Amino acid sequence: MRKDNDILLQAKGITKHFGGICALDQVDLELMNGEILGLVGDNGAGKSTLIKIISGVLPKDSGEIYFEGKKVDIKSIKNAKDLGIETVYQDLALVNTLNVPANIFLSREVTYDNMLGKIFRFMNHKKMYKESEKLLKKLGINIGDLAKPMIEYSGGQRQAVAVSKIVYWGKKIALLDEPTASLGVRESKIALDLIKTLREHGLSVVIISHNLQHIFSIVDRIMVLRRGKRVGVKNAQEVEANEIVSMITGVDRNNVI
After folding, report:
1. With 70 as the cut, is the pLDDT of residue 255 above it?
2. Residue 227, in any domain of the structure
3. Disulfide engineering: 151 pairs with which of 76, 95, 96, 166, CB 3.0-4.6 Å?
């Protein structure tokens, strides 16, 4: 039986409108400690909107969010990051012209711990490079020369950098929006294997994906949204893909000819 103290993040009655369109209508979400939760639904179901509210990108119109049992007000990306929530969107938010260490430490650059560093913010590139090397080695990621600009890496390698960045900075929660959308079969498998290791590093995960095969391969529970409403949550080991498709589409699988 689930206990309240097992719930790491809880969203209650989240509502969001864009003009006359209701993107989210009284949506609840519970993320457990050490859990990988799949968030699925058709285009326009409200998945990304919900993630953006939790990550501080968008304000909610109404509803409440609780983190480790305490009510929190996430008004900005900084608020979310301060709670230990890190997000990777489909575009990965990597800067193509910068190298791997610069992307991992983007907006959180390490400066020299001396007067020049404190006053002029001279960046300690050597330390950031070493930290990045150590991080990737710990995760078993080998992408070669870390000094190359990001644009020279493959889609899978870029995804690996984005996920490793979550491991380095994320303390509690990783939010992943379509992490395998632009990857081939081999690179998708590598990315999914890497995502599964996030919980080994103390993170709970919410993953959005249209690929149900990918969802079933890594998640513990599946939450379905349809037209801005939560229509159900199922244990991944106790439900078939056809039932999830039926929940997503609103079409009873028994009535399909």
Report:
1. no
2. yes
3. 96
pTM, 2 dp: 0.87
* Residue where the block lists tokens 């990304």: 48
Ramachandran assignment for 187, one of left (phi > 0), alpha (psi -120 to 50 degrees), beta (any other): alpha
CB atoms within 10 A of CB 216: 16
Burial class of 201 by CB neighbour count within 10 A (0 to 12, 13 to 18, 19+): middle
51: closest CA among 152, 40, 165, 82?
Answer: 40
CATH code, domain with 40: 3.40.50.300
Neighbours of 165 (CB within 10 A): 23
In-domain check, residue 110:
no
Q: How far apart (Å, rounded) are the C-alpha atoms in residues 8 and 166?
A: 17
Q: Is the pLDDT of residue 178 over 80?
A: yes
What is the count of structural domains for the chain?
1
Query: Is residue 147 domain-resident?
Result: no
